[in-house]
Amino acid sequence: MKVKVGINGYGTIGKRVAWAVNKQDDMEIVGVTKTRPSYESSTALREGHPLYAAHAEDQENFDKAGVKTQGTLDDLLGKADVIVDCTPGGFGEKYRPIYEKAGVKCIFQGGEAHEMAGVSFNALANYHEAWGAPSVRVVSCNTTGLVRTLFPLQQAFGVQKVFASLVRRAADPADKKGGALNAVEPSLKLPTHHGPDVKTIMHGLDIQTMAVVTPTTLMHVHCIVAELKSTVTEKDVLDTWSSSPRVKLISGKDGVKNTGQIMELAKDLGRARGDLMDIAVWKDGVKVVGNTLYYYQAIHQESDVVPENVDCIRSMMKLEKDNLASIERTDKAIGLR
Questions:
Q1: Which CATH class is domain 3-139+305-334?
Q2: Predicted structure pTM score
């Protein structure tokens, strides 16, 4: 029997999670919601997802547009075992009482507070903290990226302290509003929320972060300094990441020097939607001095959290005890391996 999954919010993340879930052999999408008829509503129907209006008052807009829906979110909750909330940040808190009243497990995204869900999730680092949980938050794209590379280092060598500077994209490619078009804007509230967010996964890690927003839409870039508890070589570090899931080593020497070229590489690899769900690390941008490691990585903000949502479903629904087995199963199904 497959776990029945609903998606509330079929947008940038929601449509990707729906696609990934339907690639798995132990779960299926039973419906997705939209607040209004749009090209994404058409995409949902074309991909075979039952479409629901998010609210009763939205139903009229679909009816006027001649778009057939199966009912509202309340109807979808009656068919789902777990709902993946992909609504805009801050909306999840409003929906949580609705999910709880329906008796449906719920997954929230990184735009929600850790305290609201009770458990924050990364498949590699703390898979079992979500085991059987009623509600979980899959952390943000940036936090996911930081944990994906720092956790293997912590396991292999120990991590004493981390400082990360985040060069953030201003908006997703399809967004019509976001950061300034001709300016770099620093985050003046320091440290930024990213460090504390990493600590919800890697408990007790000493990490500080800063960030600037730049006028680009493709990816985030992290500049990371990590003091390790052991003296290592660049080869030791690269070997560790080579054996870690969802980390992709790239090289400027191969002509992959910037985020635009990374996204072009993802297309050439045949990745769905041209996404790169792995964390891209420049192997020729890794430097070790004593026990201090310096490196750069790039985060595709639209997609890196997608496989984490799939693994989170497995943990919450107790489908697979071993996190590495779940990761391998997910990644094979969606073409990461």
A1: alpha beta
A2: 0.96
